[in-house]
Amino acid sequence: MKKAWTDLKTFITVAMTVLLFIIVIANLFGMKLQENLLILVTNLLTAVFTYYFSKVKENKETNY
């Protein structure tokens, strides 16, 4: 968790995950939020997870 404060990529991932949990918990307690807000946050979180976790690390010995 200490890395999340120094690395922007990790901070954004953790922050967006916390935001999603807050929205879901607020919805469970009866708060009426816009449905578009939940759709927007889940789509953005999916895009961030897909980009960061499917990124292939480049090997220094081969140039591809």
Strand content: under 5%
Work out the radius of gyration. 16 Å
Order of secondary-structure elements: HHH
E-strand count? 0
Instruction: Give me the number of helical elements.
Output: 3
Class from helix and strand fractions: mainly alpha
Low-confidence stretches: none
Give the averaged pLDDT, no decimals: 76
Describe this structure in words.
The protein is mostly helical. The protein has one domain (about 5-55). It is about 70% helix and about 0% strand. The protein contains three helices and no strands. It has helices at about 5, 10-30, 35-55. The longest helix is centred in the N-terminal third of the chain and has 21 residues, at about 10-30. The chain is elongated, with a radius of gyration of 16 Å. The relative contact order is 0.12. The mean pLDDT is about 75.
Short note summarizing the structure:
The protein is mostly helical and 64 residues long.
Keywords:
64 residues; 3 helices; mainly alpha; 69% helix
Note the topology:
Layout: H1 3-6, H2 8-28, H3 35-53
